[in-house]
Here is the input.
Amino acid sequence: MTQGSELRVFQQVVEDMETAEANARAEGWDLKFLQLSPGRFRGLYKSAALPGMFLTYEDYGRTSLVATGQRPDDVMPIVLWQSAGPSLRCCGQEVTKDSIVMPWRSPDVDYAIEGGGRAYSIQLDRASYRSLLTALPWLEEDSQRESPRLSKRSIGRLKHHLKMMLGSSLAESGVQPLLTNARALATNFLSLITEGLAGWNEEQDGCCRSLDCERPVHLKRTRDLMEARPKEPLSLAALCAETGASARTLSNAFVKRYGVSPVKYHSLMRLEGARRDLKRSRPDETSVTDVATDWGFWHLGRFSQCFRLQFGECPSAILVQSPRPLPMPAQSGRSRPPATDAPCSPSAPKAA
Here is the structure.
């Protein structure tokens, strides 16, 4: 984590899943984001690197999305979720609005956010984590329970101690007078975090929980298959044949976990892949047709319709834009690692 006299802060409007992934990589997280709901995405990301901790504020608007991957082993996050939609599933478990999540039991990440929301995250390094457990020794034992539910008194003590740690870390950062803009942004950011902490519902038992991200075997096999063959259209029958799961079992697992069917999920993965290729390409080097067929969309009109519905813009409009490098947020100090359920199913290519 950052040490010394410079407080690093970062603020950015996020307009696609690729930028969200770049922000996560800067924090040392290996995450993949997938937009589930149709429409143009517009979010907000803020971060501040402080001694002993890295703070993030992420606003996903009202877009439903999935985030999967792994967090760094040397980070112990405490996340306050404020769901804007009807459902938030962390590691397959339903989480109520304004819930505190401590994903300490496993480095795996698997979040499905329905209808958007906001996340305040305090990522502690090992030293700060040990300091927290020294002050609150019961926290580690409670967080390792199968169904951890902290009492409102325990939640109040946790909130109080985290506020003290935030204030101490900001004071230790020793911002120079010339960096008044940085201090103002950091103060604003910390106000958001404090506001989020103040919003914890201490009257509701069980709003603080630790989660285990184990996936059912058939769900993991299906996800692995999709990622291994990202450009190949896969039918439900093909997925079942490859994974050994029945159509009902597999469909129910995906709908429960992510809110969409497995075929719809994979179709959205391919649309996202096509969008990224279009962003990285130049119109004098490739065409929309080339990118669409490369990702298994053989009917160009259908592809354009699905693309425009999902992302709020035409594929040709993305292609004519020059490739732009992604802006980089403040690093955490860790090394960087290099509407409906009907899918946009491609038509099979006609025989010559």
Summary: The first strand starts at residue 8 and ends at 14. Residues 83 and 292 are 34 Å apart (CA to CA).
